[in-house]
Design a protein that fits this description.
This protein is α/β, with parallel strands linked by helices. The chain has one domain. Helices cover 24% and strands 22% of the residues. It contains 2 helices and 4 strands. Strands 2-1-3-4 form a 4-stranded parallel sheet, with helices on one face. α1 links the parallel β1 and β2. The protein is globular and about 35 Å long. The two termini are 13 Å apart. The mean pLDDT is 88.
Amino acid sequence: MRDRQGKIRVGLKYCGGCRAAYDRVGMVDTLRERLAEKVEFVAADSEDAEMILIVSGCTSACTKLEAVHDRPTRYVTSPEDAERWVAEISAGKT
């Protein structure tokens, strides 16, 4: 369900940060700013999330989410991976 401005609602979930190799929260803050016109971040368990973004601090991507409910789910495990996701969102590939 798109919001009134046509933004995609992305459910956001962080890993526990036990082996974080980068600043996950800082990266998401940057994503929020860069994608402000295209994306609205909501809680991962929000019923109106159209897709789920799981931000993992390392490549093990061990965070699991029970409330996916057949929604597209994307793991981001590095800043470079986040850039690929930004490109996907910008190109409308989600």
